[in-house]
Amino acid sequence: MDRRKFFRLLGGGVFLASALKGRAQAPWDEKTFEPTRTLGAPLSEYGGRSPFEEEVVRYISPNLRTRHSGADFAPLEKLEGVITPNGLHFERHHAGVPQVDPKSYRLVIHGMVERPLVFTLEDLKRFPSVTRTYFIECAGNGQNGYRNPPDPNLTATRSRGLASNASWTGVPLALLLKEAGVKPEARWLIPEGMDAAMYTRSLPLEKAMEDVLVAYAQNGEALRPEQGYPVRLVVPGWEGSIQVKWLRRILVTDLPAMAKDETSEYTDVMADGKVWAFTWVMDPESIITYPSGGQRIKPGFHEIRGLAWSGHGRITKVEVSFDEGKTWRRATLEPPVERLAMVRFKLPWYWRGEEVVLWSRAWDEKGNTQPTREEFFKKWGRNNRYHYNAIQAWRVLPDGRVVNGDRPLLGFAQGPGGGCDGEVFDV
Amino acid sequence: MDRRKFFRLLGGGVFLASALKGRAQAPWDEKTFEPTRTLGAPLSEYGGRSPFEEEVVRYISPNLRTRHSGADFAPLEKLEGVITPNGLHFERHHAGVPQVDPKSYRLVIHGMVERPLVFTLEDLKRFPSVTRTYFIECAGNGQNGYRNPPDPNLTATRSRGLASNASWTGVPLALLLKEAGVKPEARWLIPEGMDAAMYTRSLPLEKAMEDVLVAYAQNGEALRPEQGYPVRLVVPGWEGSIQVKWLRRILVTDLPAMAKDETSEYTDVMADGKVWAFTWVMDPESIITYPSGGQRIKPGFHEIRGLAWSGHGRITKVEVSFDEGKTWRRATLEPPVERLAMVRFKLPWYWRGEEVVLWSRAWDEKGNTQPTREEFFKKWGRNNRYHYNAIQAWRVLPDGRVVNGDRPLLGFAQGPGGGCDGEVFDV
Question: How many domains are there within chain B?
Answer without folding.
Answer: 2
